[in-house]
Amino acid sequence: MAEGTVVTSREGAVGVIELARPEKFNAINRATFTAMVAAMEAFEAEGSGIRAVLIRAQGRNFCTGGDLVEAQSMEGDSAALAEYLAFMNGALTRLEASPLPVVCACQGLVLAGGLEIALACDVVFAADTARFGDQHVHYGLIPGWGATQRLVHQAGLRRALDLMFSGRWLDAQTAGAWGIVNHVVPADDLAEAAMAYCATLASRSRPGLAAMKALARAAGDLPLDEGLRLETARTVQIMEGPDPAEGIRAFLDRRRPRFGG
């Protein structure tokens, strides 16, 4: 299904959100994130059968950032700019808050807003030829969609400041070493590798994956003892559902589990 700047589809139990402005290097505008949020809501809907989401992009580059023409239209209007930034930030926070695992597949240039999309996803695949960076310093700007926060959490303070101060690009291997990327694969294998990973996630217990994601994302904001209490409570909750019993039966029967979710 086409949604203007985004194309959505499904492959089995995997929902796909595809950035579709290759002629603009997949620059992000409000319409892009509006369609992305709508797609996430549809994928999460009861009975949709979607167990994982893959974000990918058409063309040679994943995304080179926000649409500067759209941003320039708000020059001098602080109220409009604040509302715009709140909306764009909310869209990326929506990815983090989704109970579904969100996987990102990046090729070519992954810059500024493109980097901020990747930082908001749960797992990131990168082509070995991909380049990651923050470009805001070149325009007298600062990141406005979460990079000043997520980049510090994922790469560390000094690395985050270095990347933002310098405006330089990281190769995929360095982005992996910094914790920005999980898997670096040959460029020709990117689409297949990311989809195969998502298909594996789709065979897992949906409530189990959702609980793992929620607990892990809360961990950085909670004292350890509070996080452990929350983990215990969620473990009891999960054990009361049907999937653990099916998983144990499948192990004893030496077969693959058939989770209902």
From TrEMBL:
| Name listed for the protein in its UniProt record | Enoyl-CoA hydratase/isomerase family protein
Name one matching Pfam family: ECH_1
Domain of life according to the entry:
Bacteria
Under the heading PANTHER family, the entry gives: ENOYL-COA HYDRATASE, MITOCHONDRIAL, ENOYL-COA HYDRATASE-RELATED
Per its UniProt record, what InterPro entries does this chain match? ClpP/crotonase-like_dom_sf, Enoyl-CoA_hydra/iso
